[in-house]
Write a structure and sequence with these properties.
The chain is α+β, with helices and mostly antiparallel strands and 419 residues long. The chain is built from six helices and 22 strands. Strands 14, 15, 16, 18, 20 and 21 form a six-stranded mixed β-sheet that branches. The structure holds copper (II) ion.
């Protein structure tokens, strides 16, 4: 009987381990766990590029792109008044050496304005060898991390060779990778030793829980004697002494220090994109006139009223939301270079051409399994079944105009063309 239980337990443990192992690769894409509305209606990422997909340790690369801050930012998420540009990666596998929003150096938190577009770039340097998924990411205070598209980056070499030289204000250079490491050890190891000794002493002497019970019962004298108080006083005195001496030594070794620079950096200059900025220049504007999301077909059909305010005819070429790109194959004749898991290169169908000055209602069909794989189809189960994103219109000579689209759609749970 006992043997059976033991076998069953081992079996269960093995099953759990196997499941964990099997799902491990999926954990690279944490963005899927965020609600559809959060990803579609907060930051609309576009033109995201990775300058390289393979770098050596110490080699530089650039992650760049643009964001449109969605006009109908969801109520449930705090406005991006305090936002921090970042790279979403599994630990510091690449280090950030600089980052920019527009032309501005933006190492701190910034304020993003609703409805505006911003260009960003992050300079990265290879640190830890391996194959890693690297995302663009913006952390919004009160809203959490909003993750952009990700790409696999291969880093070759050995982390032992990694250096991170930085020139200080006084002209000297330090290697951030190793700077002050001995001090970190010197301050942490003694405290860890003291802590371990403390735990071991109480564990061996009377048992930690038994001692706690006696103190809780109001009988501390049963466990804490005069010797304990004496040792406690000595440790306290040593702690204060170490703090005073440490402070004095550090002050004399580094007489000139400045605190870490924090606080909000603003104002930032938004970019004027081809349309979304809406500054009286040529633009295409759109309005959502209802739509249906068919859950079984992974198909979104939307009615869009398009006003072509440009001097050329335009065609709809792309819908982008939550980093996914749904392309119209009759406009995109070649497949752009973009991570495959986010690129539905035949995902959009529409054959309308909108003449200059014309207003026209078009029907756009967006169908792809990626709706489901990237869990955007969850919008059917949201308390607020609204889509969001950008539509890109193209002129015959390839000029691009972006227009924001968003609003409620009706989910449909049965297959077929029934109303
Ligand atoms: Cu990922």
């Amino acid at each position: 009987m006992k043997k059976l239980v033991k076998l069953a337990a081992i079996g269960a443990a093995a099953a759990v381990a196997a499941t964990l192992g099997a799902v491990a690769p999926a954990s690279a894409h944490g963005e899927k766990s965020q609600q559809a509305f959060l990803r579609m209606r907060t930051l609309n990422w576009y033109d995201v590029q990775w300058s390289k997909t393979s770098v050596n340790v110490n080699e530089d690369m650039v992650l760049s792109g643009k964001i449109h801050v969605f006009s109908a930012w969801p109520q449930a998420v705090a406005n991006p008044r305090v936002s921090f540009l970042n790279a979403g990666e599994p630990g510091p596998v690449l280090v950030r050496t600089a980052q920019f929003i527009g032309e501005q150096f933006a190492p701190r938190s910034v304020s993003l304005e609703i409805g505006k577009d911003y260009a960003f770039s992050v300079n990265l340097r290879g640190r830890r060898a391996g194959r890693w998924h690297v995302h663009a990411q913006i952390n919004v205070e009160g809203g959490g991390p909003i993750i952009g598209p990700g790409q696999w980056i291969e880093i070759k070499g050995d982390m032992k060779d990694f250096t991170d030289p930085v020139t200080l204000l006084d002209g000297s250079t330090v290697d951030l990778e190793h700077f002050g490491i001995s001090r970190v050890y010197a301050w942490h190891l003694p405290w860890m030793a003291v802590g371990a000794a403390w735990i071991l002493f109480w564990f061996i002497r009377k048992g930690i829980i038994a001692s706690y019970m006696k103190v809780a019962e109001g009988r501390p004298e049963a466990v804490i004697g005069d010797d304990d108080r004496r040792i406690g006083a000595i440790v306290l005195a040593l702690t204060i002494l170490a703090t005073i001496v440490g402070y004095a030594v550090t002050n004399s070794t580094f007489p000139r220090t400045i605190p870490l620079q924090a606080g909000l950096q603003k104002p930032l200059t938004p970019i004027e994109t081809e349309g979304t900025a809406g500054v009286g220049k040529e633009q295409v504007t759109t309005e959502l006139n209802g739509g249906v999301y068919k859950v079984p077909g992974r198909e979104l059909t939307i009615n869009v009223k398009v006003k072509n305010g440009t001097s050329q005819p335009v065609r709809l070429g792309e819908y982008t939301a939550a980093g996914l790109r749904f392309l119209n194959p009759s406009v995109f004749t070649t497949k752009p270079d973009f991570p495959d898991y986010l690129l539905a290169d035949r995902g959009l169908s529409n054959d309308d051409t909108i003449a200059p000055g014309e207003s026209k209602e078009i029907v756009v069909k967006i169908q792809d399994a990626r709706w489901d794989i990237e869990r955007l189809s969850d919008l059917a189960y949201d308390t607020d079944s609204q889509i969001g994103g950008l539509l890109f219109f193209f002129t015959p000579d390839g000029k691009r105009f972006a227009a924001e689209i968003g609003g409620p759609v009706i989910p449909k749970f049965v297959a077929g063309d029934m109303p």
